[in-house]
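INFO  loader      accepted 1 record
INFO  loader      residues=508
INFO  predictor   begin
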Amino acid sequence: MTEHRAATLSDLPENDPTEVAVGDRKVVLVRQASSVFAVAATCPHKGVPLKMGAVKDGKLICPAHRAMFDLESGDLLAPPACESIASYPVRVDGEDVYVTVEPDQPEHPLPAHAGRGDDPRRFVILGSGAAGWRAAETLRREGFEGTINVVTDEGPVPLDRTGFSKGYLNSGETPALRDESTVAKLGIEVVKGRATGITPALKTVNLDGGVSLDYDALLIATGCDPRKLDVPGADLEGIHMIRGMADADALREDIESRAKAGPVRVAIVGAGFIGLEAATNLNKRDGVEVTVVTPEARPLAKLFGDAFGDRLLSEHREAGIEMRTETRVTGFAGSRRVEALETEGGDSIPCDIAIVAIGAKPRTEWLPFETLQDGGIGVDDKLAVAGVEDIYAAGDIAQLPTPWGDVRIEHWRFAQELGELAARNMLGQGARYAGTPFFWSMQQPNGSYSYTGHAESWDDARGAPDGDSFQVEYVTGGRKAAVLALGFDDDLTKLTLEMAGTGPVADA
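INFO  predictor   done
INFO  writer      dumping tokens
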């Protein structure tokens, strides 16, 4: 145990995180009156420096992705982080602040959790994505000692699928949320397979291959599949979609194989989040020429307005990406392998590889009960499915009542929040959604954008998406429902807390 003099009280502005060196370790100090708290210097999610974060109501909040930690204990309070942050003992002697750091103390410890015990219950979770895996871990954090089966048709560890349209396309570094040793430590059993049916009266779920699992509570968190483009030539080789690692691997291998013969022309059909992220990242590869084709005049304008759509269009063109707007693909040309996109206007766009990124549909067609028109599952405020006992739904497929209305939101962090909520309700806690929808993207040419709140329509959009940082506020009914921003801002972080559980706030 080693104690270090870290700072003086007068050097620490109140509630303003300050990074200091304590021995060979960086630590963040936060002063509140005469008390000082010391925690790890970085967020475990993406390593963002917490000295840039905000402090409010005893919470330290990551500035980038809004993970929240208890300032005193370092305990994880909100996603997207999966680990807590270390908390270090502090001693104040007059003006001097001393911090004690154990040499072997992990900076990002696994949150306290139960292990497999004598509880005879079995909880089955269908899907190992953001919602499903978060639910499994939350069950252990809430003290559940029964069997947890996570059913997945992917690998033995949970993966961050958002990475497959981003850096993984270039680096090949697997975006795993957990390694196998941590999965084992948590006592979570991963079952390889895909659900094919549920018998609610018997409380059983059937998997492909004839496997059947009994359950005491069941969570459906199967997520979405990419939408296919139903046009002539859609079955040609060289046409890809992106959902999981196998899809991303096939795309990377195809690019690398084609690159041996010279420049690779990649055509991306669709200018949504996945399409634009893939375009930005593939455009960074030497010898890859990217064209994005969309029937819309401006990308994402329906979600964020024409001005932001114009900004995205300019950014991508300035980065060297060809943007073909107001262009509808009617087919793929080629004898065995794709050679071109055919368009409604009669143009032919040559390509060596095509990526279809035209949205996603809920993986719910196999369910024995009624789904919504868009394929989602309607749930109550506790995420329970009506008409069936002990069945819950979470993540991209769940439409639930919130202060923003009945919404089905395909956000990664929102899915994690719903996974936590579902786990607590599977344990009978009667919890309701008390967060704020938030996402960040998009790894665009000039930075990552964030979106706080939710607005499917708006009366007024205040602010302009200009410059190196901006905020656009979406106002409806005299209340601020959402904010689109570029850049970190403490006010936006605090808005997340203000909206949590209450929804749109009064417009100033």
